């Protein structure tokens, strides 16, 4: 349990944030995640593009006035010149801002931690990837579910051949918070997510479908070759899809189904992955993330538990507390921050992080956007088969 | 709990069986189901088309030698002439025999209980339906999962509007027994199920996909208008599909996904239905059939339990024992037999059974075959959208 | 799956019943259980001690008038003389009748299947045991939970040393149906169970505590040496205990806790056993009886499922249908009836049943009554430690 | 979700720590908990009583050398004199050090956060209570499970009468890590916990039995009047109890059972509480802490989920992220730290925290020690009934 212990937090990484001011949800999550393992120090922000709100938010979070900006471009420029300027930035705005903000900080030589989906168009995503690749800077996209230890356990088991050749992938991410027309109430989270101008062409498919898509790819190591997507809008007057049903053809011949919904009453954040191979299966649920179910063919069902002695090193190195004491969403998120910290610290001295370090990078971000574009295109054609573009 | 009590079993229904001899599985289930509520007396059979086997099986089951046949046509003819001849027959053969056998008994004026899928072609199904409709005889197709009390509870709740307008249907039936090439071992169940000549054009889709399709329709009251089906054969050398992934468009605009698989390790008979509407959701799992999960939007998740005072009359009338004492697969199967008994007993006196009596009929059988044909056709076109034929 | 198949039911056992008329619950269960595997024929009864009710019940169940009695003593005498008289009798009356009825039939040379608790006093139980032992007749006490396949699996695993030396037993049986004063409503089941004259000195402890006690003993093979029992009556005005909490000291030094309650809202028939040894643990729940959880120390939790290839022969020989198709309470009850049938059939020819045949006998019945007496005595002393009498 | 947001962390509380150096477990937990909500700054420590180890641990954690002590008494004295000295101290040593350390810091005017059990004797606990009460300082005992939102939800529901009058309490805390003689391996956690000199007279009963005892009291609001405890040592050669079975009599007449075990294979940190009243029941499990099961008599079982709109304010004010995104052990621990922070911040200005603030205090610590002493005494008398001392 490498994270719990006495690892020196020598020289916390100076971190800034774009977005995440008053009324935001995910900004607070990023800050708690950055704090948990004590590898970051939050020192600057452009927390809102509304000056007054940016100011209030900065004060509330204890930023020094001169490090609280209302313009990410200005922030990138000025921080790059400060001797104690930020080394990394978290971009936690609505989707349409990601591309420009990420490019500004990359150009300023600052490592980037960016929320998903990476951008609102594949074209932007590919431009951003080019810049990120050339910069040599650390670039993390917060497909945060890959920070859960038992997700890493699943990935290690698939890679080790414990379920044989992967044949079937069943992945889903169901929520219910948009079952009614919440956006009409002015609720901030709902408001921008259903607005194509800020969210991009995908609604539910971009917001949570991408998480399901990434999780399946992360665990199986397989890419999607083609898909057939039925995107539906059930709530009258809503401008983007709120229910997503997709058939997937993986590169190795495996077949998959992906369901994402924000109109499924009783589902909170019901992300669930099942993978079946020629020798066994695996099942993982985000709402009870400390367990992984392994079903070797013809043998008793096994429930593996985070923190136990038998778990793979890839899972145990990102675990903080003993088995039976649940770790949750914030811990998984914090793990990604600590993985990025490993890479950033290595970069300080011109090196590379340990091979075991693992986090979603710009390529994962591009793949997510390619997935959204293909799904939207397929659905527009009446749910026809479409090949995935991108990388 | 109407079934447990003192209801007079006056005049058990004389029952025959076609198929279900040595090595068969489902025949024994039908016999136990017929026996549980004491409404039937098993008196004749053409238990195998192999004379020696038919004879041995008849003896083993206590049939009188003269009531043990090796030819269903001869059986239908002779039983029709006997003063104590069978009143009903159960047809539990491989699929390709269903149509001819059912027609023979209908023509002989004998009520029919037929396993699913009804026939191997839609054309046959429609011919059979015509005959059944004209005959006025009772015709039950054993989509047995509709015999579970909590499935009936779900149907009643949807009908009562408790989940609002149905939007999303997620149904699946996963097994693992064909993960390896069991048919090569000579195992009888596997053998005929993967043989197009005996099973029909659908493998997994016909064997268990039809159960999933029927269950969703039974609970929601909705028909499928179009589907897009990806049928896959994962086990090398197998001649029929062993994994089925389908997008569904329901007549009311609801959207569905159906997954059926016989190559998903760790799944025994994992039939599971989830239905989401504008006001709530329902979830039911065959492997734990005494519970029904109801998720009214924004309220605590409710788990309803068979036998409790709050369950709908439609569920409590087909329940035998108190809540917490699990009823299982045989009880649900027995319920269908008892429902058919109600209809057969009513027919004895030229009447109709009580309105509460409910069992899948020939129309359900036709719908199942139409579903198979559409799925096979869609898949043959590379998983294109196909409208459902039939009724 | 020996029970499903073609086993010849040649010569069904002629069965009678004492009790189980109108308004009774358990009589119907016994009849369905006797019917499921087709080893019995129900031909005579003293279904009630009220003549009119006995008559009506007999008619409703299709008994011939001359085989429908209102007095078990007369029934025993007459049936013993008939050439086609009953070979076995099921005694399903309130507890206070068990002893006299069982003795009457034993004396008449008729095999006995008796509900639990065996008698209302240990003295009676020991007298009955003496008579049963001397008679050489089959005597089964329906501690029915021992008929569940996965309970037998648990027993086999403990016996095989898979959990090492047993150290800790946690067993409980919780219900909620007596949370309010149901007996005041005239409900028949509640009425006699809370009446010391008919139920005996124990209320909840006798009604369901004995099931928990037997289950733990059946699985572990261990006897209770001493106990310390707190019997409580929570519902004002009730005459017998409705909540039972007991510390147990087993003969081998293991320690146990037993909780039985009929006033625990949300519990239907929540019988649950957990056993922990030096190498592993086992957990079984009656409400989901097809699974058994096995926890080998330091390894993933295993969930074993009835019907799978890896289950012990002791479990698979009493299984009817494939895994994933749940068997329930009636099937387990039916298994006891079929086990008794094996013994009765063997007795017909002067032999013994196969060694694998297993059912609770008169010794188990005596142990149950000794348990009740010790618990009542302990509680009367303010929950002091008391040694178990009996055997 | 008050904790997630923009609450100003103005002036973090300066925190010190006694214990928690190399090889310790709970020290790291306290530090993460203190960090999560950004209310504390960790600035001083006596992390070990071994000078070299204290030094190394302090360096590893980034303490300034002059704030890293090897003697808590010296630390208390010096920190009290510093202008930027610590305002609060966390005492996370083995049990035998708690009393002296807590007294030293109280005398130095420093707020105390102390691990449980409070002390190794009731006499010490009462002396400490006296000092704490007189000091007016904040004193928190980390019965950390009371920090879980759904535990607070349960408490609020009991207080609101939703389950009626409490009748039955079933509480348990099972682990398996001491099933074998781990202490012989030199494992630090095991080593001191089974040593009476460092752990006190109770082993398992003190280590985890106290958590179960506190949880039940916290939720029900009831105190234990008498108990009858069977403490057992199953592992040969172990010096303290490793399995605990207790009957409880609550002050209001409710009856309880408490099971704690460290030798129950398959149990990780299986703390579970069930409470039944005259109108309903509640069930909560630490291993899946975001759900609370509520069983109103005669109605469907309800599963309440942390973060949903219907939860009580007492639960939602200590929640950080939306429902369905699990919070775990560290979050609950962090909640206690933030609750203490509220009290410490209020004390800075001579005030009291908001009434909603809630954390276990010195009285809870005394009650825990009284519970241990009574259990040890009862067991020594052969499991006789003993009244609880203390307050």
From TrEMBL, chains A, B, C, D:
<feature type="domain" description="Gfo/Idh/MocA-like oxidoreductase N-terminal">
    <location>
        <begin position="13"/>
        <end position="143"/>
    </location>
</feature>
<dbReference type="Pfam" id="PF22725">
    <property type="entry name" value="GFO_IDH_MocA_C3"/>
</dbReference>
<dbReference type="Pfam" id="PF01408">
    <property type="entry name" value="GFO_IDH_MocA"/>
</dbReference>
<protein>
    <submittedName>
        <fullName>Gfo/Idh/MocA family oxidoreductase</fullName>
    </submittedName>
</protein>
<dbReference type="InterPro" id="IPR000683">
    <property type="entry name" value="Gfo/Idh/MocA-like_OxRdtase_N"/>
</dbReference>
<dbReference type="InterPro" id="IPR055170">
    <property type="entry name" value="GFO_IDH_MocA-like_dom"/>
</dbReference>
<feature type="domain" description="GFO/IDH/MocA-like oxidoreductase">
    <location>
        <begin position="151"/>
        <end position="283"/>
    </location>
</feature>
<dbReference type="GO" id="GO:0000166">
    <property type="term" value="F:nucleotide binding"/>
</dbReference>
<dbReference type="InterPro" id="IPR036291">
    <property type="entry name" value="NAD(P)-bd_dom_sf"/>
</dbReference>
<dbReference type="InterPro" id="IPR051317">
    <property type="entry name" value="Gfo/Idh/MocA_oxidoreduct"/>
</dbReference>
């Amino acid at each position: 349990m490498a994270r719990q212990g006495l690892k020196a937090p020598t020289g916390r990484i100076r971190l800034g944030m774009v977005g995440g001011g008053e009324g935001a949800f995910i900004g607070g999550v990023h800050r708690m995640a950055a704090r948990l393992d004590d590898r970051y120090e939050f020192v600057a922000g452009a927390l809102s593009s509304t000056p007054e709100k940016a100011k209030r938010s900065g004060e509330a979070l204890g930023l020094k006035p001169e490090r609280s900006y209302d313009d990410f471009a200005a922030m990138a420029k000025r921080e790059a010149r400060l001797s104690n300027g930020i080394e990394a930035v978290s971009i936690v705005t609505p989707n349409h801002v990601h591309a420009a903000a990420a490019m500004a900080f990359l150009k300023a030589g600052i490592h980037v931690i960016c929320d998903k989906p990476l951008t609102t168009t594949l074209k932007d995503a590919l431009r951003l990837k080019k810049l990120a690749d050339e910069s040599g800077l650390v670039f993390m996209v917060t497909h945060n579910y890959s920070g859960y230890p038992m997700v890493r356990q699943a990935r290690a088991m698939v890679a080790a051949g414990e379920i044989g050749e992967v044949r079937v992938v069943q992945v889903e991410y169901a929520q219910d918070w948009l079952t009614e027309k919440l956006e009409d109430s002015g609720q901030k989270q709902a408001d921008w997510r259903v607005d194509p101008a800020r969210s991009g062409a995908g609604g539910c498919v971009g917001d949570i479908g991408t998480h399901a898509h990434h999780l399946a790819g992360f665990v199986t190591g397989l890419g999607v070759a083609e898909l057939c997507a039925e995107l539906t809008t059930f709530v009258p007057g809503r401008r983007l899809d709120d229910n997503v049903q997709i058939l997937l053809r993986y590169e190795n011949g495996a077949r998959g189904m992906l369901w994402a919904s924000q109109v499924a009453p009783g589902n909170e954040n019901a992300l669930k992955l099942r993978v079946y191979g020629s020798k066994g299966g695996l099942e993982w649920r985000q709402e009870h993330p400390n367990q992984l179910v392994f079903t070797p063919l013809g043998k008793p069902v096994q429930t593996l538990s985070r923190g136990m002695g038998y778990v793979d090193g890839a899972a145990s190195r990102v675990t903080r507390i003993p088995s039976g004491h649940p770790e949750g969403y914030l811990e998984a998120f914090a793990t990604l921050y600590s993985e990025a910290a490993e890479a950033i610290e290595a970069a300080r001295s011109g090196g590379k992080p340990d091979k075991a370090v693992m986090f979603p990078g710009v390529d994962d971000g591009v793949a997510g956007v390619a997935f959204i574009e293909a799904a939207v295109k397929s659905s527009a054609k009446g749910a026809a088969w479409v090949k995935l573009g991108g990388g």
